C-alpha cells in the first residue's frame, strides 16, 4: 500500500483544504487522551498520545502539510482504531449500563463517550491522511528517482524492440524474390489463360476474288 521510499511531495490544493479538518481531528484525539486518563485507561491514553505525536509530524516542516509522514500516521491510526473498536465492544459487552443510560453515573457516561468517539476519530483521521497522501502522489510532480529510472529503462527497452522489429522486416523484404505480374508465373501465362487470350483476339479474314466460269439457268 505504501512505497518503501518516498521523497517529499508538495501539498496539493486538496491537502491544504483538509489541513484544518486534520487539526480538528488532532484536537479531538487530544481531548480523548484526557478522557482516557480520567477513566483510568492509561494504556489507551498512552497509545493515543503516540498517535497524536505522529500527527504533529504531519503538520511540521517547511510546507503546511508534510506528506511523507501521512502514510505512517495512517498506519498507526488504523491499528489504534482497530484496537479501540475491540475495546469498545468488550466494554459495552461487560458493562452493567446500556448506552447513555440515565441511571448511569457521570464517570460511566464519560467512559462510554470516550470509547465510542475514540475509534471513530482514529479511523476518520487515518482515512483523511491516506486521502491526502494519495492525492499528493497522483497529482504532484514525479520526484521519485527509482520510479523515474524504471520508466527510462522501460522506454529504452521499448525503443530497442521497435528497432529489432524494423530490422527483421527489412531482412524479410530483401530475401523475398521479385513477384511476377498478375496471372503470370516464371515461365509465362498458364495454358487456360493463354487460350482465353487467343479467343479474345480478332479473327482476320482474307477476301478471295471469284475464279471460274459463270453459268445461267438457260445455259445447258
Structure commentary:
Residues 163-220 are annotated as: Disordered. The chain crosses the membrane at residues 21-39, 45-65, 72-93, 113-133. Keywords: Membrane, Transmembrane, Transmembrane helix. There is one protein chain. The protein has helices at residues 13-38, 42-59, 70-94, 106-139, 145-175, 191-200; strands at 184-185, 188-189. The protein has 220 residues and is an all-alpha fold. The protein has a domain at 13-140. Strands 1-2 form a two-stranded antiparallel ribbon. The longest helix has 34 residues, at 106-139. The protein is rod-shaped and about 160 Å long. The termini are far apart.
Radius of gyration equals 45 Å
Q: State the helix count.
A: 6
What topology, given as strand order, has the largest sheet? 1-2
Strand content: under 5%
Residue-averaged pLDDT: 79
Major β-sheet annotation? 2 strands, antiparallel
Query: What distance lies between the first and last C-alpha atoms, to the nearest angstrom?
Result: 126 Å
Q: Report the count of strand segments.
A: 2
Please identify the structural class as seen in this structure.
mainly alpha
Helix content: 55-70%
Choose one word for the global shape: rod-shaped
Low-pLDDT parts are 1-6, 183-187
Taken in chain order, the helices and strands follow as: HHHHHEEH
Amino acid at each position: 500500500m505504501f512505497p518503501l521510499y518516498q521523497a517529499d511531495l508538495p501539498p496539493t490544493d486538496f491537502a491544504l483544504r483538509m489541513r484544518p479538518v486534520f487539526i480538528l481531528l488532532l484536537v479531538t484525539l487530544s481531548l480523548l487522551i484526557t478522557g482516557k486518563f480520567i477513566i483510568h485507561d492509561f494504556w489507551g491514553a498512552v497509545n493515543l498520545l503516540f498517535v497524536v505525536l505522529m500527527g504533529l509530524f504531519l503538520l511540521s516542516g517547511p510546507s503546511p502539510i508534510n506528506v511523507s509522514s501521512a502514510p505512517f500516521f495512517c498506519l498507526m491510526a488504523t491499528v489504534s482504531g482497530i484496537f479501540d473498536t475491540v475495546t469498545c465492544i468488550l466494554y459495552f459487552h461487560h458493562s452493567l449500563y446500556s448506552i447513555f443510560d440515565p441511571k448511569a453515573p457521570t464517570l460511566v457516561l464519560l467512559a462510554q463517550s470516550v470509547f465510542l468517539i475514540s475509534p471513530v476519530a482514529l479511523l476518520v483521521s487515518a482515512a483523511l491522511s491516506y486521502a491526502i497522501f494519495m492525492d499528493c502522489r497522483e497529482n504532484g510532480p514525479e520526484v521519485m528517482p527509482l520510479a523515474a529510472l524504471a520508466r527510462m529503462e522501460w522506454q529504452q527497452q521499448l525503443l530497442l524492440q521497435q528497432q529489432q522489429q524494423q530490422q527483421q522486416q527489412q531482412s524479410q523484404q530483401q530475401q523475398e524474390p521479385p513477384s511476377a505480374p498478375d496471372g503470370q508465373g516464371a515461365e509465362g501465362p498458364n495454358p487456360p489463360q493463354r487460350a482465353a487470350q487467343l479467343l479474345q483476339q480478332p479473327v482476320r479474314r482474307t477476301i478471295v476474288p471469284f475464279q471460274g466460269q459463270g453459268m445461267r439457268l438457260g445455259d445447258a
